[in-house]
Amino acid sequence: MKRKPKVYSKIENHIFGIITELLKLSNTEINVDELGGKYYLSNDEQHFKVTILGNDYVIRLTNTRDSVAEKYDKFFVEDVLKAVKEEKHRRMELVYDSITNSIEKMAERLHNTLIETNEIETQKVRRLEAKRVDDKKVKY
Q1: Model pTM above 0.70
Q2: Burial level of 58, CB count in 10 A (0-12/13-18/19+)?
């Protein structure tokens, strides 16, 4: 059963816009307390913090001058949380991809080093074998 898209109030639209813009900025930190249902956004450059209390459907917006906390409609808060969770997940995937890429590059370098070392050792063995054959020349 699909629910109808919610039409947000003017203030809800404004808050959703603020949060969406904060999420677009890479320097916005996203911290989550899943057990407590608390989500924190903070951007020191913008002097802005958002606290979302998911269990109570409360959103607190804080800037340098004001701090306002209001209880909102359950579906609105869930939509906000969905946006926050999606961005958190996207950022985690970027970190995961970066780590995976670094590990793959490291493994490739190690593999190439081992191949080079193996080739050098093989050449040393061939030289030693060639010297032994030269030393054992038969005299007629």
Answers
A1: no
A2: middle
